[in-house]
C-alpha cells in the first residue's frame, strides 16, 4: 500500500519531496510514489486522477497570489479528506494535483471517487470574510492501459484533463489511446498553420449582408479561408479553433483587421454607399491591452471612417474578458465602430450580457433561422430577439437565411437585415465589387 501523504506545509525542507505550500508530495515525490507502485507488481492495477483547478490564473489575477495560495492549501486538504486512506496525493503543477489510487482499477469506482472529489472541491471556500467558489476538472487513467512509466501515466492523465477542460470543465474524462493521436494531429495542424501564415496562404472572402426591403448590399462579413497548396481551399471549421489557440492568433488577427479595412477603404472610394465590413476578433486579440490602439492606428493609416468597420464578438468570448477589454470596445463604439453581438441567444446570459456590455447590433444565430418557419419554438425565439432589439434600439441581423420563406418571416416580424446563401455565399472581394457595381453603378 502507498500511504496518503500529508505533512504540514511548514515541515518541508529544501530538496525534500514535499510541496512547501500544501504539505503534500511535490511533483518529484509524487512521481517516485507512482513509479514505486508501477514496479511493485508485474501487471500493476491502479488508477491516477489528475485534478486541475479551472481558471485558476484568472483567480490569481483577480484576488492576488496570497489568496490563491490559501485556496491551494484548502484544495490539498479537501483532496486528503475525499480520497481513500491509501491514496497518495501530490501537487504536480501550479494548479494541478495528482491522486494515486494504488488498489483501485475499476473505472466505475474511479469515476465515483472522482465525482466525490469534484463535489467536495465545489463547496464554497470561506477566507477573510470572502466566499470563493472553486471549480475543477479531472483527467483519469487506469493502469496499465495508460502506460508502464510514471511519466507516461501522468502524461496520459494530462491528456484526459485537457479533454475535460475542453468539454466545459467541472467534469471527469478518462484517458483513451486515441487522445495521443489527436494531440499529434493537432500539433501537426498548428505547425502547418504557422507555415501557412509565413507563406501567405490565408485569404479573406466576403459574404454580403442585405437590406431585406430592397435587396441592397449594406454590409459584408470578412471570413477567413486557408488556400492550402495541396488540399485547396480549407474551410475554417477544420482549422479555426487550432489557430485561435495558437501563438500566432494575434498576428493573424492583425492581418485580418488590416486586410478587411483595406478592402473597406477601397469600397468607400468606389461607391457612394459602401458596405460596412464586419470582422471577428480572436480571443487573443481581445486579451491584449493594445487592441484599441491597433484598431485606431489601422483606421487612421487607411483614412477609413470608423463607421465602415464592424466588430463581431460572441457573448461567451466577451464574458471571458476583463473590464479593460470592455472599456476598449466601448471606446471604439464611441469612435463610431459598430459593435455586434454575434450568435446572440446561444450563450448563457444573453439578456444580462446586454446590460453590462452595450452593443449596436444583435446577430441572430443561424441555428434559430434554419427551421424558423417550421418550429414554433425557433419562431418564438427569433421574434423575442427582434423585440429585444426594438426595445433597446439595437439593430438586428439574421444569419443563415437560405429560403424566401425565411426572408418573408423576418420581414413580417420587422427584421430588415440578413445574410445567407439566399443572397450569396462567401466570395472574393472582386466578385462582391461587381455585385456592388451592378447595384450602384460606377
TrEMBL record:
Pfam family, one: EAL
EAL domain: residues covered: 186-440
InterPro entries the record matches: Biofilm_reg_signaling, EAL_dom, EAL_sf, GGDEF_dom, Nucleotide_cyclase, Rev_trsase/Diguanyl_cyclase
Gene3D superfamilies, sorted: 3.30.70.270, EAL domain
Region (Disordered): 1-21
CDD domains reported for this sequence: EAL, GGDEF
Residue stretches making up the GGDEF domain: 44-177
NCBIfam families in alphabetical order: GGDEF
PANTHER family reported in the protein's UniProt record: BIOFILM ARCHITECTURE MAINTENANCE PROTEIN MBAA, DIGUANYLATE CYCLASE DGCP
Protein name in UniProt: Bifunctional diguanylate cyclase/phosphodiesterase
Source organism (scientific name): Cupriavidus oxalaticus
